[in-house]
Amino acid sequence: MKVLILFMILFGFGCADNHIKKYEPKERDYVFPVEPEELEAQSSEGSIWGKNREGNYLYTDQRAIRPGDILTIRIEEFANAERATATSTSRVTEMNADISAFLGLMEKLKEIDPDIQPSKLIDASSQTKFDHSGETGRKEKLTATVPVIVKKSLPNGNVFVEGHRVILVNEEEHHFYISGVARPFDIDENNTLTSARLADAEIEFTGRGALSDNQSPGVISRFFSWIWPF
User: Fold this and answer.
1) Could you tell me the membrane topology recorded for this protein (predicted)?
2) Which residue of 26, 63, 126, 217 is most buried, as measured by CB atoms within 10 A?
3) What is the C-alpha separation between 161 and 151, in angstroms, rounded?
4) Taking the mean position of all CA atoms in its chain, how far away is CA 161?
5) In the chain, helix, strand, coil percent, each to 5?
6) Is the dihedral of CA 143, 146, 150, 151 positive or negative?
7) Domain ranges within the chain, ordered by starting residue
8) Among 163, 140, 137, residue whose Cα is nearest residue 77
9) What are the tens digits of pLDDT across the range 129-176?
10) What is the pTM of this model?
11) Quick one: DSSP state of residue 186?
């Protein structure tokens, strides 16, 4: 009996989800941004031979353009951004006032101190100068290969594709997601397409696990970074 219970426990662990955390695949509800043109109804030829059936042709185009077809996206994304700013401001203010008569007060002050000069009673000046310069740069590179599924055929003949890829290596889980709109003639004979040819593309690469957790600061460090004013 104990052996049976132990076997059931081990079997349960073997059937358990191997994801580090519960994984919920992203699904994008793509809406065609342009209203399709209304096409005039075409009369039927009344023939049992249909020109839109691939089986009726000796040579057919096998590109993945129908919903449910699979094609491969080569993700080749490169980003290089640089930005530099410089600011310089200067301000000088001077103020001189000559008080020669103020309700008879100046005469009283001269009687007390004959050396008082009314032209120098108020004399102020200020100068402000601000110089600032900054420069920032960032480079990114992402290369991967992700199979995608044709999810939707658009009215103009283009297709909306979407795909996921999850890789688990040494307790580190990597997630690839890509979606976008592809033109059929950009798909090569091997049903392969580069990410640069995708319109309205969304590309995500995330990871979770021991390495990802160690790269982020702890709770205490984030708390003190939030309250530290300098």
Assistant:
1) Lipid-anchor
2) 63
3) 5
4) 19
5) 20, 40, 35
6) negative
7) 85-135
8) 140
9) 777 677 777 777 888 899 999 999 998 889 999 999 888 877 788 888
10) 0.55
11) G
